[in-house]
Amino acid sequence: MLPGREEAEALLKEAEQCNPGPWGDHSRVAGRCAEKIAAACEGMDSEKAYVLGLLHDIGRKFGVSQLRHIYDGYHYMTELGYDEVARVCLTHSFCIQNIHDYVGKFDISEEKVKELEAALAQVKYDDYDLLIQVCDSLAGTEGVMDMEDRMADVKRRYGAFPQEKWDKNLELKSMFEKRMGKNIYEIVRG
């Protein structure tokens, strides 16, 4: 299950009031990118994509955090009964599907890391998991960014960005471009 568009927008607005910051605008850009790409891909639901992109970082509601935002978002959406959103809160940072490739601090207990790791291992990625991973790598706070510039920005802010993860993001971008038959930037900036 997932919320409708208006409820998703209200959830994000409320979350921003709890923890103001640029993450809200990043989430809106990710949502719009997801909506546009899904609309250009046969068999994908653009409304669902928008909601998932909009709420992928909803765990930031609970304060400034790094890995904890994944844990918090996953649990928050699960508690609200939005299992599809909870799933994307869990998967959006792990295109390699390995929790230890997370770029940032592990600011949760080892027990919670193991919980996330076990949950992540149970997921068989679908088109929406992959789409939100791509959109997270395209979404800046002020609009769409070149994916490589966005990854370089993350590397500069956090001090590292695994090459395997970098390459996988570019592979996913290429996969969606082939599926759409168009350059991804034409779609998301159009």
Short description:
With 190 residues, the protein is mainly α. The protein has 10 helices and no strands.
Please name the defining characteristics of this protein.
mainly alpha; single chain
Structural commentary:
The chain has 10 helices and no strands. The longest helix has 18 residues. The model has no long low-confidence stretch (mean pLDDT 96).
Topology, please?
Elements: H1 5-18, H2 23-39, H3 46-55, H4 67-79, H5 83-91, H6 110-121, H7 127-136, H8 147-158, H9 163-180, H10 184-188
Helix pairs in contact: 1-3, 2-3, 2-7, 3-5, 4-5, 7-9
- According to DSSP, the number of beta strands is 0
Alpha plus pi helix count: 10
| Structure class | mainly alpha
**Rg calc:** 15 Å
In the predicted model, the low-confidence regions spanning at least 5 consecutive residues are none
Overall average residue pLDDT: 96
Proportion in β-strands: under 5%
The largest sheet is: none
**What is the N-to-C order of secondary-structure elements (H for helix, E for strand)?**
HHHHHHHHHH
Shape: globular
In angstroms, what separates the terminal alpha carbons? Answer: 29 Å
Helix content: 55-70%
